[in-house]
């Protein structure tokens, strides 16, 4: 089956295998702390979908209010840089046994929670310093930042645009479904049009988007899942003029070209800029403050858009576990064969210039309730790759 895998794309782009290092910013999530919701998405575990992330120096990864300890602790850029270096070293030990001869570098992956949700200036400054410290690390070849589409106000876009001038940045957005009825059921906390706008905003500053979608959400048919993929493809870079690359020809864009898409000038004005503390939820980036002007002289190489596909997993301690137990929802439990057959139907909807970053999740085994066959990611991937061969 013909699709562009993350591994193949990174080999073409960086000349060898690139390994993800899961790092933590210590951010929490506005869909958990009450800013736009409580309880979080129904499938999300206490670790904020990032159980494997290296922890910050005070030992947490954003799951509770002890984040304040970190914000007070990290008082200088030197300390933050040291902290990031330590996180990178710890994360490297977790992939050390897997390194192949074709090793080309690491992707710094800020995975858990909402990594662009800042509750005050100090938190923003601290996390920004973390991102830049990671980008300046010699072994880091690219940065991936997982966040919510409603947590990307102007000042964050401005910061990401600057970061993208040091190392290529990908922003990962958890859309999961295009269907707003399902989105309400899973307590996603924002409307699909908020995602659409976030993608446009990120493209306007030359940043590629990786969209997460979940297969097997309650009440969704296979046609609905296909709708989600079609929406992602049409909203993302595949349809955006001048954006994205292909595996055979990673397109190098100048910053000017990317910013000139639709603007007609060499200077991009991100406007308006939300002040720190504006609610990120259901935001349409309306806010007050000075417009951010980005220097367009620097050349960058953008990352292409991508997609992460995951089968819904029921984890211990989640709202989904409770809903299944109480029979509030009924889930279809896909067998490996059914899942492979569904992927055979869905993958052809994804153009080759969009990178498929994931075909299965990597659940924390101690939390996984179902489907249990997804516990061993390596085995599942081997099976899927065989099953998807033409
Ligand atoms: S937005 Fe992300 S971190 Fe927040 S509850 Fe949903 S899945 Fe979890």
Structure commentary:
The radius of gyration is 20 Å and the shape is globular. The strands form three sheets. It has an eight-stranded parallel beta sheet, with helices on both faces. Strands 7-8 form a two-stranded antiparallel sheet. Helices cover 33% and strands 16% of the residues. The chain has a single domain (4-252, 301-388), classed as TIM Barrel, CATH 3.20.20. Helix 4 (121-136) links the parallel strand 3 and strand 4 (140-147). Helix 3 (77-95) packs across helix 4. The chain is an alpha/beta fold and 390 residues long. Residues 29, 31-32, 40-41, 44, 48-49, 113-114, 148, 174 line the site of iron/sulfur cluster.
Chart the SSEs and their pairings.
Blueprint: E1 4-5, H1 6-14, E2 17-23, H2 67-73, H3 77-95, E3 103-110, H4 121-136, E4 140-147, H5 154-163, E5 169-176, H6 180-185, H7 192-204, E6 208-215, H8 222-235, H9 255-260, E7 268-270, E8 292-294, E9 306-311, E10 314-315, H10 319-325, H11 336-346, E11 355-358, E12 368-370, H12 377-388
Helix pairs in contact: 3-4, 11-12
The protein binds iron/sulfur cluster.
Number of helices: 12
Strand residue content: 15-25%
In the CATH hierarchy, the architecture is: Alpha-Beta Barrel
How many domains is the backbone divided into? Answer: 1
> pLDDT average, as an integer?
82
**What small molecules does this complex bind?**
iron/sulfur cluster
